[in-house]
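Dear colleagues,

As part of the handover before I leave the project, I'm documenting each prediction I ran so the next person doesn't have to rerun anything. This entry is a single chain, and its sequence is reproduced below.
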Amino acid sequence: MDQLLSVKMDTNSGVIDHRIHDLSSEKQSGLAWIKNHIDEVNQWVNQDGFALLRGLNIVSSNQFSSILETIFGEPLSQYMYRSSPRTALKNNIYTTTEYHCEQVILQHNENAYSNKWPMRMGFFCVIPAKSGGDTPLADSREVYKNIPLEIREKFERLGVMYVRNYGDIDLPWQEVFQTDSKCEVEAYCDANEIEYQWYENRLQTRQRRPAVAKHPQTGEKVWFNQAHLFHASSIDGQTSDLMRTSIGEGKLPRNAFYGDGSVIADEDIHVINQVYKDLTFSYPWQRNDILLLDNMLFTHGRQAYSGVRKVLVGMAKIVS
């Protein structure tokens, strides 16, 4: 992550980025302030694609849930068709992805591999890490523009096919679909254009999705897929080659192909990851920070970190 730009405070003028909103001088509780400034907060996100609210007094995950529901104007959504391990708290608040602290989580738009995704996300920093642990961002419009034309056009023409094999290495299907019933899994897949195949108690799914989307409000094209995150080359070190050789491309825990089933070259995935790295920036977390995000306009990820880190997330405004 050596190319990551950290956006820092300017000690003379207060902030150097208008998307950081320092509210530490407010005397009300965080929820009370939000209720009095709903339109203003939503305008910040609509204009800039995200907003960092800093300095609000927030005492619990329940209060965070109430703040998000007030801003979004609806109850928070349940996290279905999961791709990473999380702990569910009350009122559809979740921990962020619980991968090992040394692991970097690549940039992604939440649920871009699915035909349903949240338009709005909110992150809440309960405990910032001792070092690292930022939640980097990247503008999906700029990612689209900066991917070389030859690669971009092929993805745009063919789309992406996501292949998942649930079981020993990746998440079990019971956790992904939040049920122990094969019938319920099949019903969900049928309703959401997911092909599925059972191998006794093991499940494989395939889902074809566009690689590029248009933002419903702005009409702008955004790079909106997780091909780089699912692709076999994203597995660390030599593990990718060993797993490919031992179990084959089609049986990896997860993999990404073009929508017609053809192989995506490792080199093209490396180019896409480099574009993300070049465009990624972050704000070092402070306790009680709330980061509001337009999930189609901006990707997010996670830096490696040391010490204790606790960041919560809630999602709403599901679209398809």
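Confidence is low (pLDDT under 50) at residues 8-15. The chain has two domains: 5-105+115-136+282-319, 142-275.

All the best with the project,
I.
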